[in-house]
Specification:
alpha+beta, Alpha-Beta Plaits, 2 domains, 4-stranded antiparallel sheet, 3-stranded antiparallel sheet, disordered C terminus
């Protein structure tokens, strides 16, 4: 118990120190920042087996239908074509065992990594405009390798720990994941942001660097939210 308390106090102290440094930077003039456009984040190498693959979740499944595969193909093809008419599907399949009452996710292989990026970039806007997809909580994600998935889970767990510590300490900060790293912002000055100096961040960064994985610059994960 004492070790856990000491660890938590160290985490809180580290957050306080980072915020103090960021506040000290406010006095320095900030040059205008040039807005640039980058491709969405794809957490897999371009020549990786997963580089063309996405996962579609919460598409209705007709388990007992004799033509269930054809129904899935029609549903996914209609969805993808509405998102981007130029995207072509190579193959698709449900993931996992059949379970009554639970819709299995569908892994979809597209023809290229560029098509994958196009779908991931445009999908959120299209889904938000479609009441049926919103009702079903349908969403589309990049399909990751098992190793990359483990890194993302570790990153998310660490983010949750830090958010809990910040909330308990009533710290007015914003913690989020962007480009596979946990960032911290001072709410009073959103333009000031930085990558958190943290062991998990270092481990994840080393993994992606070792595997030569491409990372875009503008797309945050759904972990992005403000905490007051």
């Amino acid at each position: 118990m004492q070790d856990e308390l000491s660890k938590k106090n160290e985490q809180i102290a580290a957050l306080h120190q980072i915020i103090l440094l960021m506040q000290q930077e406010k006095a320095a003039p900030t040059p205008p920042r040039r807005r640039e456009s980058y491709a969405p984040t794809i957490n897999e190498p371009r020549n990786d087996a997963y580089s063309n693959m996405i996962v579609v979740t919460n598409i209705p499944e007709q388990i007992d239908a004799p033509n269930e595969d054809e129904l899935d193909k029609a549903a996914i093809n209609n969805l993808i074509k509405n998102i981007d008419p130029g995207v072509e599907i190579d193959s698709l399949a449900r993931m996992g065992r059949k379970t009554n009452g639970k819709k299995r996710s569908i892994k979809v292989k597209l023809q290229s990594n560029q098509q994958k990026k196009a779908v991931l970039s445009k999908a959120p806007t299209y889904i938000k405009s479609n009441p049926e997809l919103l009702k079903n909580n349908t969403f589309i994600n990049s399909m990751r390798s098992p190793e990359s998935h483990r890194m993302q889970v570790k990153l998310q767990r660490r983010l949750n720990e830090l958010r809990k510590d910040a909330k308990e300490s009533k710290m007015d900060v914003r913690l989020y994941i962007q480009r596979n790293q946990i960032h911290l912002n001072d709410i009073s000055n959103p333009e000031k942001n930085g990558i958190l100096n943290d062991a998990v961040n270092e481990e994840v960064a080393a993994f992606y660097k070792q595997h030569n994985i491409f990372r875009g610059r503008t797309q945050s994960t759904t972990s992005d939210f403000e905490m007051h």
